[in-house]
Amino acid sequence: MPKKIIRNLQFGVGLSLLILIASSLASYWSIQNQMNHRENLSKSRLAMTAVKDVLVSLLDAETGNRGYQLTGREDFLEPYKRGMREYPKAMVRAESLSLDDKNQQDRLNSLKVSVNQVTDNLKYLVEQRRRGNIMTQQQIVTSKDYMDQCRKIVNDFVQYEESQLEIKNKDLNRSSNTTVLFILFSAIAAVVVTAFFYIKMRADLIRRDKLERMLKEKDQEMTRRVSAIQRIANR
Q: DSSP letters of 124-173?
């Protein structure tokens, strides 16, 4: 095989490999970004669910306390006991997500302080009712203030995450589109390079074959002339 054809073949294979490596690296980077965006989305949803579960547990505990304050019957404390069991689990889930946003971390810390105020107050009120002391009007107002503070923190947390969720969704869609573009570019580039070098090598081979035929014809013509000269010389 002529050196030119070998050189073209080497160049074509090398360029194809270069495009393949570059597109593979770009696709890997894009897919990693996509995975990170998905993880952030999942973390946001889990965080919102966790803080909502904290609030739901506190509301259960508050409902149980109110029923107990009104009736003095222990069976009315079942929602209270359930809420007191569940809120620490939800709080741990929220804290375990290790949110990167400092504002959300501050809100979680504030929520933890506020939750402790609510639960300590509820424990105190239940214990006082067992001793026969019913909640005063001031204690009712104080309990409401504690719960309102928890609601505000949870609402602020959820609203902020929802606003970030829209941004993260856009980032995920952008990353997905980028990945698709990289894959399409890789496929098109591979086809173009392959087609280009196929056409080029085919043209070289056709030109070489044509040249060989011309040389062969000239060689045959030369042979015929030499034979004719020899026949004339031998007469």
A: HHHHHHHTT-PPPHHHHHHHHHHHHHHHHHHHHHHHHHHHHHHHHHHHHH
